Amino acid sequence: MPRLSPKSDREVGVMEELKQHTLHLRGERIVLRPMTEGDWDILLKWNSDPEVLYFSEGTNVTSWDLDMVQQIYRSVSQSAFCFIVEFEDKPIGECWLEKMNLGRILRKQPGLDCRRIDLMIGEKALWGQGIGTEVVRLLVKFGFEEENADAIFACDVADYNFGSLMVFQKAGFEIFSAVGQPPATKAKVGYDLVLTREKYYDMASG
Ligand SMILES: CC(C)(COP(=O)(O)OP(=O)(O)OC[C@H]1O[C@@H](n2cnc3c(N)ncnc32)[C@H](O)[C@@H]1OP(=O)(O)O)[C@@H](O)C(=O)NCCC(=O)NCCS
After folding, report:
1. What is the pTM of this model?
2. Where does the pLDDT of residue 3 fall: very low under 50, low under 70, confident under 90, or very high at 90 and above?
3. 164 CB less than 6 Å from ligand 1?
4. Given the CA of residue 52, which atom of ligand 1 is nearest to it?
5. 6-150: what fold?
6. What is the DSSP string of 62-100?
7. pLDDT of residue 16
């Protein structure tokens, strides 16, 4: 949700530890709880699964090692609220709400507080059961109602990732831009989608 390599393309520096928070976001069936330094085993498991990475990464990477996994999440956490998704008291995925880090979007939204959502349901047996939809709705509510964001984006969603496109569109996101991808990547097009604060509150009142 990455994401067309949002992860691998990030400038991942050497960070000591995850920047943590204490928030719990509770949905009907899931809880989003803070990601911690005790979560490396599950994060490594999901980030070593070629089928998960096929959808979550733009390049042909099939596995990240522990060092890279730690670099990625520690780096993201400096400007994001990183969560573990729990279902029936078990960790089943990860997600975050992050300050927008893509110049191509920020340049078109000067002065606005733009964020992005990324998510991965790492337990494949649970794909297609509405959990991704619930994750996005919880993060969107948090982003607008608690963080007062002006716009929330999903970035670089691969053209073949129908599940991800559906999850965001069901929450009210619309296509913001279609970005042609370099030849070495799996997608021909990566979509940026957006939900504005105005549309969010219009939907809530309608
Ligand atoms: C993409 C992902 C987040 C979707 O979450 P999910 O829990 O599987 O999705 P949901 O069950 O909430 O599905 C939402 C809608 O998309 C549809 N959908 C889900 N997967 C689909 C697929 N592969 N093809 C077509 N439609 C799909 C569902 O039927 C549902 O539609 P409905 O409400 O009309 O029935 C999850 O599959 C995942 O984490 N995949 C691996 C990592 C990834 O792709 N992350 C996102 C990168 S941008």
Report:
1. 0.95
2. very low
3. yes
4. 41
5. Aminopeptidase (3.40.630)
6. ----HHHHHHHHHHHHTTEEEEEEEETTEEEEEEEEEE-
7. 84
